[in-house]
């Protein structure tokens, strides 16, 4: 069995090392810098969990998978997968005070590849996520214009004939039951692109014919990508010291904006009908596998286990912090935020659907479509449309920044611990280099053909995430032991955990993760969007990208075994004996 050593040094002031650690570049042997207060840690992990997917992806999944009935598989997997993984990762991160690479090295050296999987996942997540932040900044800037640039068709624009603005009714004579009629989706769609669709396609993306033609650079988006990375860099320049202060704004601010948008949505004529649609269950949908699989995938999207972020954030806790309470509270808070965000989304979507005389399922679009097509259309129909648009995109900016903070810090701290020589350089210079490298990988996505790359990355981003999570659970529970995890939590918090947790960790988690991983692979289909089909070469590149998130696990094991065999063979070599006459 593996062993992990606790670091029980008294908490040090942020920016200092505990236990009189040296400052000559060596990794401190005791607990490193800790949060200035418990709330800083709590808000940082909360921001890590509550991201764009909770507001943009969750409502679409609810609509797609039986309305309110989807909440049953969602909360089932929250408590059978999300909470147990969270308890395990946070508790071990706090107990050891180590980042993922050092954590797995101490647990069992041959499993260190799991830590590398975490780091690579964090790196590419940030590359991909910052593109969304650049888009959000683009819409935020345009939200200050009067009128909103996506409110009308611009007759002077190129291909202006493709733009068509349908008449939106102000009388609301449409029956709420009409919102569930799936047969009326093409009433307006056949006449051309709406102003919001035209703005998204031509002003934001300006797409080429395919991924083979990246076209020219979108210099405005490149500037906004640089601005987004500067924001992340400035907020993290002093590590958890600055992060613990920034999250008071970026983690709590979205709740203020969500509440404002919710109150406004309640008073929209179609808002309550939209909320009723959100809560009305279609129980027959639960008889199929799709809602259950997509509920589990959403848990992984939201809580992001097996990415190393939770372990890294918890490693900065004081040893006796009540991590058990935090581990139970944070996943539930994330789920309730998604649930509340659904009320906000469906209030505006319901009102927009009634204005257009269409069903909600025709209006609601997944992912970027919800943020950049549906919400802007809904705000365009309201008085003070610029105000609501600004509030919404500031909300998205805060949510995106929060998630980026933790994934970047997890990657950075892990590499600093792995390569202590980096500590000899100034902290600001090393972080600046990390930001520059990360940004350079995102530059192809802000070309005119960049959306094709973005979609490919988005499609394959979490392909093997459940596989990594499965290996993580097996490594911790069977190489280290579930009993030791419970003992660690009792040592830190005084909480005596029941055998229920052993059953969940040793049986439920591995079985569910294996089943979900197999089903995800079986249900794979090639990437596509808006009728565009990727070439075989592009799909192969997608699989190469997906494999980067799991290949380090076997590769590092093979490397370590080969290295040990080579070292053993060298030690057994004997010096030749002289010939005896």
From TrEMBL:
Record keywords: Disulfide bond, Glycoprotein, Membrane, Metal-binding, Sodium, Transmembrane, Transmembrane helix, Transport
Binding site for Na(+): 47, 302, 399, 402-403
BP GO annotations: amino acid import across plasma membrane
PROSITE patterns: NA_NEUROTRAN_SYMP_3
Disulfide-linked positions: 153-163
GO CC list: plasma membrane
InterPro entries per UniProt: Na/ntran_symport, SNS_sf
Biased composition (Low complexity): 12-27
One GO molecular-function entry: metal ion binding
Transmembrane spans: 39-58, 70-93, 113-141, 221-240, 246-267, 328-349, 387-408, 428-447, 459-479, 499-519, 539-562
Localization terms from the record: Membrane
Pfam families attached to this UniProt entry: SNF (PF00209)
Membrane topology type: Multi-pass membrane protein
Region Disordered, annotated ranges: 1-27
Family assignment from sequence similarity: Belongs to the sodium:neurotransmitter symporter (SNF) (TC 2.A.22) family.
Protein name from the UniProt record: Transporter
Organism of provenance: Macrostomum lignano
Lineage start: Eukaryota, Metazoa, Spiralia, Lophotrochozoa, Platyhelminthes
